[in-house]
Amino acid sequence: MSKTNKAEKGALAKGTISEAEWRKKLTPEQFHVTREHGTERAFSHPYHQEKRAGMYRCVCCGAPLFSSETKYDSGTGWPSFYASAGKEAVSEHEDRKFFMRRTEVRCAKCEAHLGHVFPDGPAPTGARYCINGVALKLDTDEQGGKSGT
Q1: So which residues are the catalytic ones?
Q2: What would the pLDDT profile of 95-132 be if each residue is shown by its tens digit?
Q3: What pLDDT digit, counting tens, does each position of 31-61 carry?
Q4: Distance between CA atoms of 49 and 134, rounded to whole angstroms?
Q5: Are 122 and 83 in contact (CB under 8 A)?
Q6: d(Cα 7, Cα 11) in Å, to the nearest integer?
Q7: Which of 92, 136, 139, 149 could make a disulfide contact with 56, Cβ separation 3.0–4.6 Å?
Q8: Which helix (DSSP H) or strand (DSSP E) does residue 101 occupy?
Q9: In this structure, what is the dihedral angle of CA atoms 144, 84, 60, 46, given to the nearest 10 degrees?
Q10: Nearest-angstrom CA–CA distance, 135 and 62
Q11: Which strand (E) or helix (H) includes residue 34?
Q12: Do 131 and 115 meet the contact criterion of CB atoms below 8 Å apart?
């Protein structure tokens, strides 16, 4: 790994990347969703219908977030998963915006807003991680999404 890559990886982990740097790295929609806690329109991103195997990674930092093995069609118009890629993949935060009580999901590594998790998902977890497709990048090089690194 080059010194530049190591420095960027450390900055992501510490949350020290500036707003200007995020704006350079991300598209306007990616920035709005991940850094300003926005939401894309339902059914607007192709990942809600994606069927290929792989690992869904954070569009901001590349951290593994969700395996395609846990993806399912929730009918909501957003990519949905019943489990994250591991206990350390995502963090959960109380969200009381818009007079609702929800649980926000963020990338545990860079704090990018991903979406929300609800308790109405399928077995075995009962969770429905409703995630903005624009916050994800599908890595199809990983066998069935099993690798977490």
Answers
A1: 130
A2: 666 666 778 999 999 999 999 999 999 999 999 999 99
A3: 999 999 999 999 999 999 999 999 999 999 9
A4: 13
A5: no
A6: 6
A7: 136
A8: none
A9: 60
A10: 10
A11: helix 28-36
A12: yes
